[in-house]
Amino acid sequence: MTHNGSYICEKRDKTRSSKIIFRVLVSRGDCPDPNENITVTKGVQQGLECKQAEIFRLKLARKIRWMKDCHLMEMDKGSTYLKEQGSLRLPPVTERESGKYTCLIDITIDGRNYTTARSIQLTAKSGPPEVFPELHVVSPQKDVVIVQVGKRAELQCLAYAGFSEDPEILMFWTINGTETGDHMELTHSWKFIHDKGQVYGQSILSIPVVRREFLNIPINCHILSPAEEKFGEARLQEADYSTFYMNVALWLIAPITCLLLTAFFFICQVDLILAYRKLNTHFSKPQVPDGKHYDAYVSVSQSAMLSLDGVACFALQILPQELEQKYGYYLYIRGRDDFPGEAVHDVITAAVHQCQRLIIILSSCGKSKETVQFREDQNQLLYEQKVGLHDALMQNDPKVILVEVDGPVDYSQLPESLHYIKRKQGALEWKNSFAETNKLTQLYLKRNFWKNLRCQMPAVPARRLQSIT
């Protein structure tokens, strides 16, 4: 009893000071005199609050009990005990519920046990029941909240509470049917908010660390009035980043795949074209003849043909052996397929017009002998090129294929039209010195040359392929 009296807690700093005055009443009995009187109309459901906020703020382990008329209450189905707030919900009030209710909180500080108590006098009166607005939980409504285990999370609840702030309305949370007070780390708060003349209750449940036992279980937000109780449900679900990672992987793989496919097409372009032609030849319908008797006209200087050097060997032996004997092409080779005594210009004109391609074989002009040979045959070459290149440039028929034999060609002594074709589509290179390289390199260079040449040549009809197989 010597501790009765008023106590002052004062805090000072350099700029200001603050103090709190509170009164301590030590009671010899278990239930002190009530310091609050509540009158409730019979038939109305009532809730009683412990109202010992200073004890709850200590964040100590505590045990809360309720007494009625100094007798410990046994909680039954008609009453609900909210452990965290220490609130007591009673059934619809009758005369039997009248009496003195005491909220007891048992705490331990520095090894010593203390019990704090606060009493409320409840009186039941007769009269018409109070009218309470119909409550409605706006959110959550079976919401799924994505969270990370081990991280912080907050749940918000919004509920319609009528048109005024009714002190008898209460909001609280339950986790899988149990009160949040069973989990000391959880905290919640609620308040009234106003919006367009209507009043809502807003409550926030704070979860400092999400544990796995909180996942996929109902977490309910309750709003309670003496007339009714409503609740909304939310569930926590662990964040699944597999879809995110998959999308990121797809975004990374897609451009890489496109680059690889582009590189593959660029590298294997010739092989793909030849493979397509081969398949198309077997499955496509026979085409109507276009009046062309030859697949290519081979243009080469006559002096080079007579000299039997590398150019002649390529034009008369290597080229026909590969294209005609292996792949069934029809070639017109000047100096091989014409006859003595024929009008040269007429023969050249007719032959060029009957060919789908014009293969112009050029040799290196670095040597004086070849330069002389070129000048001797200039008239014949110029006429072949004039006829073929004019149609090629104006009508793209026949298409021109340039082949350089044994080294770079000096285009300064050649017509400008050949300069243009060289710049536009390039030229194929054949070297008789392939034989001087090792076998693998030789095989690779020759194979690439013939594949590129066949790619620029027209497709061979199926009937010719059958005749050579």
What features would you highlight for this structure?
5-stranded mixed sheet; 34% strand; alpha/beta; single chain
Q: Given the C-alpha coordinates, what overall shape results?
A: rod-shaped
End-to-end Cα distance, whole Å, is 122 Å
Nearest-integer average pLDDT: 80
Count of extended strands: 24
Structure description:
This protein is α/β, with parallel strands linked by helices and 469 residues long. The protein is 30% helix and 34% strand. The chain is built from 11 helices and 24 strands. The strands form 6 sheets. The chain has a 5-stranded mixed beta sheet with strand order 3-10-9-5-6, with no helix packed on it. A 5-stranded mixed beta sheet has the order 12-19-18-14-15, with no helix packed on it. Helix 3 (269-283) crosses helix 10. The longest helix is centred in the middle third of the chain and has 26 residues, at 242-267. The radius of gyration is 51 Å and the shape is rod-shaped.
Summarize the structure in short.
This protein has helices at 53-56, 242-267, 269-283, 302-307, 310-326, 344-353, 368-376, 378-395, 416-425, 439-456, 462-468, and strands spanning 5-12, 17-24, 37-41, 45-48, 62-68, 71-72, 80-82, 87-92, 99-109, 112-125, 136-139, 143-147, 153-162, 170-175, 178-179, 187-195, 198-207, 219-224, 229-238, 294-299, 331-333, 355-363, 399-405, 428-430. The protein has 469 residues and is an alpha/beta fold. Helix 3 packs across helix 10 and helix 6 runs parallel beside helix 8.
